[in-house]
């Protein structure tokens, strides 16, 4: 058999289970000959383009796959065909090289973290402006309808009270440069929500009677909360949250989809916590929007701190439980929000002419 | 074929399924593939899946002959893109227009049996042993009845029919598999499925009773120390108990049903099967695997998977007839005649994982 390399292994003809102990010989021109072991009988013969090398998997022999369906498998699992092009070895090399494995152990969690916390929010923000207005209107209307049927009851606020707040609301809408013009303020009573306010993507903002009651002597604090809600709408937080949650769900599905059933429970909790993290970031953005808008309206961001302080007092927040529940919460800790608002207020003070 | 059955019975031979994968080796494949998948925003995950399957198939041997995974990465990628598109449109639709989302959920429900048929057919056709491919012949109509219609109907019988439905599902999934032109014959009986469910109910009741009695004993021994911490301990204990019950029921069901199913399955003139899973070792395996994965933040996943595969292989053996040595691949002849592209159109596994 001249100087050609002879490789011992087993051969199977196309689509047949019969196994022949055989020797494969690759000539310099790439042509393949397979001989039956012992008898030296020629079992198969083909040119270089009629077979290819199977992918290299650590710990397994590399088969020759014949175009017509035959297989030659070397007996030695560690044997690698010298004729196989170098780039086919790359994957297997990375998978068995200690240094690349170690770097993957360090880089994989890091890359996953960056993908989820940086790349996905960036992609979501980039995509959201392309969402047509009809979609946000539909989304807002359907959600509003569902809420009216379930947790919202008609307001019991007096008409003067409502008109007063509507005036404040109109003042805000007129004095700010808003990109969207579908804003509407509604009042409802809700035992489920308590003292609260929320915004829907179509610009519908709802304030509960309990909240108005709680802050009735602090119009600036109420304004601060309205501005926070406008911030959610302006920055299209609902759509971004949908896009980011979708991204997170896909990442978990693709990377951990075949994990064992019970780890899925934990992954479910993980994606829930991630969604809360997205939500906390958006609350911070809306807070920021409220500070700058307050300044634009000639009021101090202190008003926002005031509103938060009233909340904290009402809920009897203790610092410790907030620390523990940080990752389970959709909103940043109240103490943190008060502090941020005070910082913004200080900046505002410094820019004011001394009276 | 008929004439050759009688004289060869004494030539049948026993064969053990062997798995030679190593946790350390697979760890490298796994972690490098995860990194590459993340860096390519998920595209490489198709290549990762093929390599992973090639590793596990190639290390699974019967009579020193490995299984082979034949799917190409682009086929997997195509299936994933379709799955991502379906999932994303459903996700967005149910967020933006919940009513339309509900309608789509209904549509997806009807699509589900079809996806199961496609997935089964794909994974069977992509599996080869001794250079002979598997195939799956289940129809959509039967999948619709077994996966959708009967489970829904069984709700109206307060799930009394469910074990019988599970038996039918197993029968559908396995008796439609063919290898070398021969169909698996599956003769599983509903009695074993009912027995499994009854045993699980009895064991779960026993575990809960024991836990409650234990709880009372502890409360009786330390009556003074009830407080906020005890509420936490109680909640933690209940979660732990819930998990234990879930894993225990899973282990009992899997062991009983797999052993039963294998003993009642025959590939005519070719092979019969035996599975010898045991509940307690298997329970320990699943519990310790889960704990290891949790404690290492997922890094023990390759070890756990290799360990589980090795256990299942070890519990499985076959009795082979000499016919196994002269099988001819019918799938290959069929697809060659059908033309590569046409056969490939529905050769797709629409799944995210």
From TrEMBL, chain B:
TM region positions: 27-47, 77-93, 99-122, 143-166, 193-221, 233-253, 282-304
Keyword Transmembrane helix: yes
Keyword terms: Membrane, Transmembrane, Transmembrane helix
Database matches in InterPro entries: DUF898
Superkingdom of origin organism: Bacteria
Protein name, UniProt field: YjgN family protein
Organism: Alkalimonas mucilaginosa
